[in-house]
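Students often ask why we bother encoding 3D structure as a string. The short answer is that it lets us treat folding as translation between two languages. Here is a chain of 486 residues written in the first language.
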Amino acid sequence: MRYFVRDLSLRYKIPLRVLSLASITAILVTASILFRVYDETRNDLLRHAQSMGRVLANTLVGPLTHDDAWRAFEIINSPFQSEEADRSELAETILVLDGKGQVYVSTRPAQFPMLSDPVRLDPEFAAIREATAGRDGHNPVATAQPGSSRLFVGIPIVSDGARLGTLVMTYTKGPFIPRFIGIAQRAALMTLLALAVLLPIAWYWGNRMAGPLVRLAGCMDQIGPRVPEGLHCDLFESNDEIGRAGASFKRMLKELVEKARLEQEILVTERLAAVGRLSAGIAHEINNPLGGMLNAINTFKRHGSNDPRTLKTLSLLERGLSQIKDTVAALLVEARLESRHPLSRHDIEDTRTLVAAEAAGKGIGLVWDNHIATGLPLPSTLVRQILLNLLLNAIRAAEKQVECQVYRDSRSLTLAVKNDGAHIPDEDMPYLFEPFSRLSRNGHGLGLWITYQITRQLNGGILVESDPGQTRFAVTLPLPEEPCTT
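And here it is in the second language, the structure alphabet:
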């Protein structure tokens, strides 16, 4: 049970705690009222008993002096004969004890006959006998044994300083109970009414207080080793502790997403850089013997046998080796900025002319949007190479249309190419720019590899967005402060 309550949501804990506190407060207040009522009822009873006892004690002096037992019986029985008397305030039993503590008369002679010892007949009378022993004054004494249901009031009967006997009255505590029950019922009713009013208020405030924490906990539960993509947390923000916690969590979540994105970019960049270093190393090692073999073939063709079959075979070898050399050269991309002239509008339009025939041959529509009007301080050959590779790659992937948009702002140039081809899954994005990868179904993948290498050398960035029916490559190149030298 303890663990069940501990694991309850705060939206239930807060109302339950409010109701529990209200219930405990009501119980304590009711108990305090009952104790106070008990004391007041007891005091009222004692005051009435003492008042009536003094009257009876003074009236009994004469009968005891003249040893008139019958008159004494009439006197102690007179309160029970009055029709106007409040029965709840009447004594249960009245006894007159003589100087030896024996019964002189009683209102219940069958139970307490004359000259009998009341303690032997009812041991509870021992308490009042001890309390009144040795008292010669007129002050009454009230006592009750622990756990007893009766209250005993003893009043000495004194005449001219001599004690004639003791008037003992017993009261039952039964009349207290209906009064206590009535008070308890009223208190319970008021408690239920208070709880009925507090329940919706506690529920409302519980949800107001716990709602932000519940949403925060639910959002935190969704975060594991990786932050889920598209995670949106509608958290409460304010200047109190809960609001600051929500704001801090949203800020932390944003930083975690950005950190994960940067880590992914770093991993992709490091992997591509490692592939580039490996490819460049292999290309350098292959390029030297490859050049030697091509030179040997050229020498043999000039100075060797003119046998047609031999020449044909050498031509096939030369074409194959030249193709290998071109592939190796593609892996050795190096941007020599000082040897390129600045980019102009005509350079962009020339790229359109180069790919127009390729697009028309495959029935692909080409939408062109060139916003470059003046020259830009960027190496035109390298920028054209980037745009050409993006366009050729888009034409191969497109189904009906390719869109190209070239624009600039005060700090950068953007080359955006979009096609309506197949969607690139998210798990394939990190391998998109790797040469000879499993994604290079229609070629060796050197186009995007070269594009990535040139973009990095020009301190630019590539953004790829792919949704069903649309894939967009956007290359952003920063503009240098000074134009390139021609």
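Translate back mentally: The mean pLDDT is 77. Keep this in mind for the problem set.
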